[in-house]
Design goal:
10 helices; single chain; 71% helix; mainly alpha; 229 residues
Length: 229
Amino acid sequence: MSNFDPDSPSDNDWEERGELAWNEFDWEQYLRTQDEVIQRYIAFYEQLREHPERIDEVAHFMGWDKEAWSSEGTDFQETETENEEVDDFDSDPYTLHKNPVFVATRAIYLTIKRSWECLAHDGTRVPQPLALALQTSLYRGEDNAMLAIQALDFGDYAMSISLLKRALRDLNQSFALLDEKAAAHSRALANFREDTIPRFFDLREIWLRVMEECRQELARPRDSEEDEE
């Protein structure tokens, strides 16, 4: 997932579309389509969860890095339907929902929260203080990450870095809460920890890549025309 380009502001996409005359139904259909994109990401992610380069592989299958796309080492074949979905995805107006960082972050967090919600309601398997603390940590981390992605879309790279730092602190807290001592409470909790830790690392890897690209953008000399303005 190396094509999270912070150098493609969303304003141009809106300008090219002109004035939109969409009603509530149109936007609801659009949002449902974006929900399907999240589910497609999850489907690829789950099937590739044992792959050492899974976040890059999933990006290829999502069509985010078509030039480097390769099916070597996988069993997937891109179908005509999937190609049509990608084309439709590209033809719609740009919103935050189309940002690859948004899709990946939202999707991975969704897989974690779904599993946790199914497990945490049972006090015999999860201590209730832990259930509440981890749930809060997960939602806070996702919230900070979403704000960071929004700042990224607006071209505010420094703010995006700061917010991702906060998201990383929340992620570290989630790591700390889900330690081996906590996992010893029940076999179900131990299984959840084993499945979730790699997902935490994937979120961390994605955010660190974005932060690095933001720092590179901030370090880039400004164009002479911008300096004159």
